[in-house]
Design a protein that fits this description.
Blueprint (H helix, E strand, L loop, with lengths): L1 H23 L8 H43 L1 H33 L1
Helix pairs in contact: 2-3
Length: 110
């Protein structure tokens, strides 16, 4: 019985607060269809420009990295091949270490 009255009290408070919220935002006008279409057109143009900008930045960074790799390969092939061997080995070692650490932490939980 007490639980039901408490729930009713919360429900009444919730309705009152929702009513206050509705009154507070009641005066906001909904934009017209033409305004929505204009907002969509502006936003799509902005996103298209941003996409082009990001794509251009990606290509520039990739060309710079490729140029550096080719320059290192041409000037010091031993350094290039050493980096090609060391970087994957370090990545695999880190992956294996995290796997064993996760397994050890999982075994301790059981």
């Amino acid at each position: 019985m007490e639980n039901e009255t408490e729930q009713e009290m919360y429900l009444l408070r919730l309705k009152g607060e929702l009513g206050r919220l509705d009154e507070h935002y009641d005066d906001i006008a909904v934009p017209s269809l033409s305004e929505f279409e204009q907002m969509i057109a502006v936003e799509s143009e902005r996103r298209r420009r941003q996409y082009r900008k990001e794509l251009l930045l990606f290509w520039l960074v990739s060309l710079v990295l490729l140029s550096i790799c080719l320059a290192v390969l041409g000037s010091a092939p031993a350094v290039y091949w050493a980096l090609q061997a060391i970087i994957p080995a370090v990545g695999l070692a880190g992956l294996a270490a995290s796997h064993f650490k996760r397994r050890r932490a999982g075994a301790g939980d059981e």
